[in-house]
Amino acid sequence: MASASDESLRSRIIGLLTSGLATDVYPRADSHEQVQRLVCDLRLAGDDLEAKLKLAGFTSYPIEHAGITQLCETCMYYKVHQRFCELPELNVPVEPDWSCKLWRI
Amino acid sequence: MTNLLWLQGGACSGNTMSFLNAEEPSACDLVTDFGINVLWHPSLGLELGENLKKLLNALTSGQMPLDIFVFEGTVVNAPNGTGEWNRFAGRPMKDWVTDLAKVAGYTVAIGDCATYGGIPATAPNPSESQGLQFLKRQQGGYLGTSYRSKAGLPVINIPGCPAHPDWITQIVVAVATGRGAELSLDEFQRPKTFFTSFTQTGCTRNMHFAYKVSATEYGQRKGCLFYDLGCRGPMTHSPCNRILWNRQSSKTRAGMPCMGCTEPEFPFFELAPGTVFKTQTLMGVPKDLPSGVDKAGYVKLTAAAKAASPAWAEEDIFVV
Lengths: 105, 320
Ligand code: SF4
Ligand code: SF4
Ligand code: SF4
What we know:
The complex is a heterodimer. Chain A is an alpha+beta fold. Chain A is 35% helix and 11% strand.
């Protein structure tokens, strides 16, 4: 179950994404090296939520890439019942139909 | 009595340590219960200098029978094929290997280095190391493809970094008690009894593998280590979750990924930075999928299993 603080953070993220926060959706992090670089950048961003969303290329809709739909719902870091992204460098509540460049199945 | 000689080439002694920790049967049981006469071993051998040379010469000349020749570590050929970097009892170790393998009833390679070349043979392989009958995946190695011991078997390979103590002693006992001919070996000459199932067979995280719940840090009390932390359990042949380590646990049970140490490519990706304990992906899909599974099937299965995962799978399950 999602906690009250998760819900308030989720609302904040929805607000940011729907009010036009420009995130780096492309290029996708296809190679292992790109993923590693991105994870390092996220670590440097620390607790800066907007910076993290921007770097990770968050969208509030799924992204189709290389013939596969990349959405939180199928991502390895997604906790289905808590609707939460468990990637330590993100660690934020999400929605199943969102997406980001760190998606992995 | 069955005469056993254990020599060490390019090695870290990890398999010796493993052997000395064996419990079922123990190294002592080999002597007291199974009539194995350990002629010499790097940690147990009494002879030194001239006496050791005499012993080795008695074996190579056929004056004394060598029933089981155990080799740990790589065959070192450097520099320039001479083997001078690894001298033992007055000559390059590789020359002893040549002569002893010729007279041995059975030749047994213990650990990755003796089996495939292991870590020393990783590029650029400065010690020009080879395994006894393989170099990584390629058959041949130091003794050559056609090598057969006197019993008619190729080198019996017991890989692992190190090999589990009981894999070592159980195979030695099988050979010493005349059951060597019954050993069935796989394509890498590993005893099938140990190396047909996967590391994943018996892993306590299989439920999390099935429901695609990932561990994101070492030692977590839930989650499978395949998706993020580079666990090679689904494509590594070993009984690590059937024959437990220290009779207690295994790497994956404790929350550390299997590194695939019983396979010829170990260490994978030549230890390039960022490749150890990290699942390598291409466009978000693991490069190495569970044995026998294709990419389309994997993606479909994962999406469906994830959607079906129960709430408990996301909570700590191994509660103390
Ligand atoms: S890593 Fe990205 S795609 Fe995966 S759950 Fe987190 S936010 Fe969603
Ligand atoms: S932790 Fe490794 S061995 Fe265990 S279920 Fe997951 S992939 Fe398999
Ligand atoms: S769990 Fe994997 S890395 Fe560890 S000993 Fe077994 S096969 Fe080797």
